[in-house]
Amino acid sequence: MKDWNAYRTALRERGRELSALHPELVKAFTALSGAAAKTQHLDAKTRELIAVAITAITTCEGCMDAHVRKAKAAGATREEIAEALGVAVALSAGSAFTHALHVLDAAAE
Fold it and tell me: pLDDT below 50 — which residues of the chain?
C-alpha cells in the first residue's frame, strides 16, 4: 500500500517545482480550486464526499489524498466514504454499460 504521507510530501515538492517553472498556471489552478471550495448550498462534508467519489473515477492520486483528508476533517466517516465510493463504482459501471451499447450500435453498421 502507498505511504500517503510520503506521497503528499513528494507531491508538494513537485508542485513547488512546477510553480517555479510556470507560476501563472499554478496561480490559476489554485484560484479554480479555491472557487470550487466556496459552495453556498453544500456543506463541506458533502462537497468532499462528492470529490472523493470523483477521484475514484478520475484516478488522480493527489486528489484522492487531498480530498480524503478534507472529508475526514469535515467529519466524514470511513463508512460514509465507502458509500460515496459505492456511488462512484456504480456510475462508472453504468457508463461502461452505456458505452457498450454504443459499441454494439457501431458494430451493427
Answer: none
Could you give the count of Cα atoms lying within 13 Å of 56 in the half-sphere of its Cβ?
19
Among all chains, which residue has been given the C-alpha cell 450500435? Answer: 105
pLDDT for residue 44: 94
Which three three-digit cell numbers place residue 82? 465507502
Question: How far apart, in whole angstroms, are the C-alpha atoms of residue 83 and residue 56?
Answer: 12
Spatial separation of the C-alpha atoms in residues 98 and 56, rounded to whole Å:
19
Q: Residue 35: what pLDDT?
A: 92
The four Cα atoms 20, 24, 27, 31 give a dihedral, to 10 degrees, of -160
